[in-house]
Every structure is written in C-alpha cells, then in structure tokens.
Amino acid sequence: MNKREVTRITALLAAVSASAAIAVAVNLAPVVRAPLVLAALLICPGWALLCWLKALEWPLMWSSAIGLSCSLAILLSVALVSADLWYPRFAVAALLVLSSALLALRTWRGLRFETRHLSRAEHRGVG
User: How far is Cα 73 from Cα 104, in angstroms, rounded to an integer?
Assistant: First the structure.
C-alpha cells in the first residue's frame, strides 16, 4: 500500500470509529449500534496502531489489524474483570475514542506530508 491509500483508509476508519463511539455514548438503537460498533472494534484499534508502521502489504495490514483489535479487546476485558470494574459500555467508548484520536492524528500527518510533498514538486517544476 502506498501512503496515499493508507491515509484515505485511515481517514475513513477514523470516521467509523468516531461514529461508533458516538453511537455508544448516546445509546442508539441496537439495530444501528451493534453492527457499527462491531465493525469498528474489529478493525479500528488495530489499524490505529499499525498505520504508523512503514507500508505493509495490504493483506498483512488488514489481517494484522483484525488480530490486534481482537487482542486489544480481550486484554481490555480481562483488565476490567480483574479490577472488578465491569463497565463495558464505558470501556468500548474509551477504546473507540482513543482509536479515533490516533487515526485522526495519522490522517492529519499523512495529509500534511502529501501537501508538503506536492508543494515541493510544484516548486521544482515536476508534475
């Protein structure tokens, strides 16, 4: 995957993660909330960490993001049970907000890089 593709996918996942966090916070109807939260929890936390790595091949990136997301959800659940603080709604919202923040930061950095790269190319007369 090139940097532009990663930036676009990251922006989309930031929006999905933020939407899912809002759906949890406002307690939307389960018919809407469940698929949105499931999709966001399955991909977004792992992608939020992996998108900072150098460009991986897309099958490896997606499968690693799903595996890492599942691992983070399990780790969070075990930590909540161990601490006798079982508040899954709060934990899911916190995980999605953190994922959304990391994804938004990566998107912003990616767009800033593309803009800087384009302006240098125009300055040199390339393009």
Answer: 20
**Neighbour count for residue 43 (Cβ, 10 Å):** 20
Core vs surface per residue 62-82: b (16+ CB within 10 A) or e: bebbeebbeebbeebeeeeee
60-118 confidence digits (pLDDT tens): 889 999 999 999 999 999 999 999 999 999 999 999 999 999 999 999 988 876 666 55
Asked whether 50 and 64 are in contact (CB, 8 A), the reply is: yes
Residue type, 71: S
The answer to whether 16 touches 39, Cβ cutoff 8 Å, is: yes
Burial class (CB in 10 A: 0-12, 13-18, 19+), 94: middle
79 within 8 A of 34, measured Cβ to Cβ? no
What contacts 93, CB < 8 A, 6 or more positions away?
21, 24, 25
User: What's the whole-model pTM score?
Assistant: 0.82
